[in-house]
Prior knowledge:
Blueprint: H1 4-7, E1 16-20, H2 26-36, E2 43-46, E3 53-64, E4 75-85, H3 92-98, E5 104-106, H4 109-117, E6 122-124, E7 142-145, H5 149-158, E8 163-165, H6 179-197, E9 201-204, H7 207-216, E10 220-222, E11 242-243, H8 245-249, H9 265-282
Parallel strand pairs: 1-2, 1-3, 3-4, 5-6, 7-8, 7-9, 9-10, 10-11
Amino acid sequence: MKSFEELMSLSPSSPFGVYTYYCDNLGDHIQTLALLQHVRPSKLLKRDRLTPHPDLCLVSNGWLTSGRFAQPSEFRGVKHVGIHLAPHVRTPEMLETLKPCGVIGCRDTVTQKYLSEHGIPTHLTRCATLTYPTYHGSREGVISVDLDPEAHALVASRYPDSIHLSHDLKPFEPEEVTEEDVVEQYRKAYGLLMRYRTAELVITTRVHATLPCIAFGTPVIYVGVLNEEDDRVSIFDGIGVKIATEELRRGEASALDKPPVVNADPFRNGYLSFLETCLKELNP
């Protein structure tokens, strides 16, 4: 695993830009750190306040939900290497924006299905957070992440020494955020990753806690919203992660049984292969 300083080190001569986030959820920072393992950009571009950068190639990874979307004419090139389209942006205008970008790397099966049905070439890449390196050392501790009080009580009853962590940040207005604030947010996200990396078990409602755990080889149980409630969760289709939301809601003890580790290699290799192709097309 690269150090925080390595991941956050920019290169002024790089032709690439990647998204950064001003939000109250560290999950977005976790997925940016994942992409920074493989792409060293010259700039981090505000996803929700995006401005033209005709000198840069945009490497787009994440949940496209708000703000001004990347127009290919405003960049040297745009490649989407792992995106989810929120329902309200599945529009004819978005389809026209994506058409010039070549094959679209889709984070989940719902996004892939939507784009394919409208004639956009796609590849199911899933998310950069599945490319964190596998951890082979000793493990210690059970962690719950952003559980509601009832679920947390069940976990604490089963695992008395478990600790509770959160991806939440204090709400703020984007214009109030300084660059120092952003760096500190990334540092907090990195700190969470280091906890997940060596944990014995993680139980979470967060997609971007679940996916890094899969990559690290950490046993993980997802107990968040289901696909019919939020189709971002279709990213788990075909991965093999233990989803125990309904069982935990019913208070079933087996919901908290430690699952086998998911082999992340096929997902890691698939994402990195697509990313490598995209980077070569952007910067031959």
